[in-house]
Amino acid sequence: MAKNKFNQNWLHDHINDPFVKLAQREGYRARAVYKLKEIDETEKLIKPGQIIVDLGATPGSWSQYVRNKLAGKVGGGILGEIYALDMLPMDPIADVQFMLGDFREQNILDQLEAQLLGRKVDLVLSDMAPNLSGIPTADAARMEDIIELAIEFARNHTGYPISLGQHW
Ligand SMILES: C[S@@+](CC[C@H](N)C(=O)[O-])C[C@H]1O[C@@H](n2cnc3c(N)ncnc32)[C@H](O)[C@@H]1O
């Protein structure tokens, strides 16, 4: 009964959330897009011509945003390449190469590296969030692990020295 009440409250808040409404109006799959939009508008990260990796991409609002930013002015297609990865399936997005798998496993990293063909990545985005157990120390450790993996990937595949930014 209490759980049902919790679900009803969550649903009520979700439906009335202004960012959920805005995402629906603007055709984005999740309100998460506005986190990336804010960072991008401040830092000017995403530019046409870039090779971009989106880690933890499902349901796909970050990939949609990136795709829109790389869209060519004339006709279809994009200027650049987008590789998206998640352990959950994602409905296709035009011009986004999606890979299904767990980023902690070597085989999915190998697949991603095979697509990159040794080229440097311009931008690594990660919104990966592990399932929470409710045990704070365990959840913090899982979060830390996945963030470290993403940082290590960025260190190895971009030409940039990586430090933790103010948004982390
Ligand atoms: C907050 S959601 C991402 C939302 C996404 N940025 C968007 O805009 O639609 C977090 C995602 O991280 C994914 N994830 C968590 N751990 C992962 C892992 N080890 N490997 C791949 N994906 C992972 C989850 O499956 C989930 O889809």
How would you explain this protein's 3D organization?
The chain has helices spanning 2-16, 18-26, 33-43, 61-70, 106-116, 136-157; strands spanning 51-55, 81-86, 96-100, 123-126. The radius of gyration is 17 Å and the shape is globular. By secondary structure, it is α/β, with parallel strands linked by helices. Bound molecules: S-adenosylmethionine. Residues 29-30, 32-33, 56-62, 85-88, 102-104, 127-130, 146 line the site of S-adenosylmethionine.
- As a percent range, the share of helical residues equals 40-55%
- Name the CATH class of the domain at 43-157: Alpha Beta
Task: Give the DSSP E fraction (strand runs of 2 or more residues).
Answer: 5-15%
* SSE pattern: HHHEHEEHEH
CATH topology description of the domain at 43-157: Rossmann fold
The fourth-level CATH homologous superfamily of the domain at 43-157 is: Vaccinia Virus protein VP39
Spatial separation of the terminal alpha carbons: 37 Å
Q: What is the overall number of helices?
A: 6
Number of DSSP strands? 4
User: Given the helix and strand composition, which structural class is it?
Assistant: alpha/beta
Mean pLDDT: 91
Short account of what is shown:
By secondary structure, the protein is α/β, with parallel strands linked by helices. The protein has helices at 2-16, 18-26, 33-43, 61-70, 106-116, 136-157; strands at 51-55, 81-86, 96-100, 123-126.
